[in-house]
């Protein structure tokens, strides 16, 4: 589904991603871990199409299409979704209204009729229940005045509404209380299917108890320096990153 | 004095001097009075504080002809689904044949000239009552040389059922027009007025318009002003409002265009328990220059005023906002709220914003604020990442920004009309 080859990206001439290789297949869950500042959010921003980052080399294939060649909105319409580490507040723009616009733009992209008001409402009801997002929040301005945890739930609510093929969850667990973490993780699991894939970026093994990854990768200094299965996350939880850093620095 | 060179003012006024007014003594005397004041006034310069950010050179250096009465097709200027009395003024002259008035008991809707001719009591009492000797040259020029416009009077305790839609058109090239309205809302009455300022083709036209509002005790007036001039026309409009006790005055101004637009809004709140709402939205493009100067003068206690002006400035357009709120010593327990927010869409667009509070009473709640900024790029990217195009995202954000500026419009078809115009602009 997603094939990243030798991806390099920089901002203001400072190289941040230094050759990323990653293969993700439908039905898989990948976890990306790594120390602060290693480039995890940069990777998700580059994949989502943030203009500030310049891709200096490498390719990204998304279901047979050149992802890097698409505008951010086309990437979304093709099924990429990014749950932001820091969701922005957009005063005056209603959450449900913009989602309706987004869904209809996506439908138009595939030559489908706009969603009917009735179906849309039913969808909002169903999906907000999935992450137990208060329906009042669903209709308020995007993230405006939301608590940190509410913003994260809202990201997953949007993900549920947009039904993406590939979801990247950038530290969705940070800021969630213990119950919310379980609720949001359950929501993500319910949305899992053999046809879609999920990338979870996290610092904590705890989330991976709920969303069980098929693969765990360690991103360090702009590169994936180690990959393994869920046991790797347990090992990291126990030992921290120093041993990996040492391995890399020795090599 | 020797035979001095003709000044710009002389040349400007020469065009108007051929106007002939066939009026009763009372009204001719008012014009004469105003003439005396006009003689002592000069056009503002860059040193005139009140006009600091708006140069009138474009207006006063142009050579004009007098506007003539003319029939135009008003169909394009009607508001969809709006059941209203329609009044048409072209180049400062009332067009009876284009107007459509359903007579309603207790409500007088006529041309101002007719009302003057009949010496209707409301006109005699209130016309020019609060517009003399204000030391403003454009107001003085209108006092002396106004041609015609609309007179509306609502009798005591009468509510007009239909809104009144005035379509104020200028047409031709280099045409100088001086229209004038008077709205008298007697005790306990209620009326809603819409005025569309339109330009039917042509360029370098200048409209100098004045509306007076007398809002008596317990009366309620809503005035909605839509300025949709072409980008190469000029206008200076002045509203002079006087509020008595327990009255409510709301003005909503939407400006979509204009090479030079100057709005002078002056509201005198001269009794207690009044409510005053001033809202504005201005969307500048190309080289538009849109200037709103507002004054709310709280003279008596227990009044509320709310002011929100918002601007979106594109291309090389300029916005000016100057809002003054006075709270006089007697005006205890006043709540005055004032806000001006602007979005600049390009690096070449600009805004001069100056909200001002002058408070002489001690028991008051007042606040003011002003913001100017670009559209939040982070927010745009966020919306894009959900599948909305960049243009669509901008549109959503601008609409959201602009929408709440005019939420006090109570006439639904008008609200829809304006929303649609906003959407068309950013489509
Ligand atoms: N706009 C920018 N300008 C300059 N440096 C930047 C910019 N954005 C990111 N960086 C740098 O790139 C590096 C990677 O940042 P990134 O946000 O991708 O890290 P991360 O792995 O997500 O960290 P965290 O775990 O703290 O979220 C950091 O050193 C950061 O300072
Ligand atoms: Mg990060």
Question: Helices, strands, pairings?
Answer:
The complex is a heterodimer of chains A (251) and B (427).
Chain A: E1 2-11, E2 14-24, E3 29-33, H1 40-48, E4 54-62, E5 65-66, H2 72-77, E6 80-83, E7 90-94, H3 95-109, H4 117-130, H5 135-139, E8 141-142, H6 148-162, E9 166-170, H7 178-191, E10 197-201, H8 205-210, E11 215-220, E12 223-228, H9 230-239, H10 242-250
Parallel strand pairs in A: 3-10, 3-11, 6-9, 9-10
Antiparallel strand pairs in A: 1-2, 1-4, 4-5, 7-8, 11-12
Helix pairs in contact in A: 4-6, 6-7
Chain B: H1 8-17, H2 25-40, H3 57-60, E1 65-66, E2 85-90, E3 93-94, E4 107-111, H4 112-117, H5 121-126, H6 137-145, E5 150-154, E6 164-171, E7 175-177, E8 180-185, E9 190-200, E10 206-215, E11 220-228, E12 234-243, E13 248-255, E14 260-269, E15 275-284, E16 289-298, E17 304-313, E18 318-327, E19 335-344, E20 350-359, E21 365-373, H7 377-384, H8 390-403, H9 412-425
Parallel strand pairs in B: 1-7, 2-6, 5-8, 6-9, 7-10, 8-10, 9-11, 10-12, 11-13, 12-14, 13-15, 14-16, 15-17, 16-18, 17-19, 18-20, 19-21
Antiparallel strand pairs in B: 2-3, 4-5
Question: Your description of this structure?
Answer:
In chain A, a hairpin with a 2-residue loop joins strand 1 (2-11) and strand 2 (14-24). Chain A is an alpha/beta fold and 251 residues long. Chain A is built from 10 helices and 12 strands. Chain A has helices at 40-48, 72-77, 95-109, 117-130, 135-139, 148-162, 178-191, 205-210, 230-239, 242-250; strands at 2-11, 14-24, 29-33, 54-62, 65-66, 80-83, 90-94, 141-142, 166-170, 197-201, 215-220, 223-228. In chain A, helix 4 packs across helix 6 and helix 6 (148-162) packs parallel to helix 7. Chain A has a single domain (2-250), classed as Rossmann fold (3-Layer(aba) Sandwich). Helix content of chain A is 41%, strand content 28%. Chain A has a 6-stranded mixed sheet with strand order 6-9-10-3-11-12, with helices on both faces. By secondary structure, chain B is of the alpha/beta class. Chain B has 2 domains: 3-271, no CATH class; 375-427, no CATH class. Chain B is built from 9 helices and 21 strands. In chain B, strands 1, 4, 5, 7, 8, 10, 12, 14, 16, 18 and 20 form an 11-stranded mixed sheet that branches. In chain B, strand 2 and strand 3 form a beta hairpin. Chain B is globular and about 70 Å long. The model of chain B has no long low-confidence stretch (mean pLDDT 94). The A-B interface holds A 48-51, 71-73, 75-77, 81-82, 84, 87-93, 97-99, 101-103, 105-106, 109, 141-142, 158, 162 and B 376, 378-379, 381-390, 392, 396-397, 399-401, 403-404. Magnesium ion is lined by residues 40-41, 85, 170-171 of chain A.
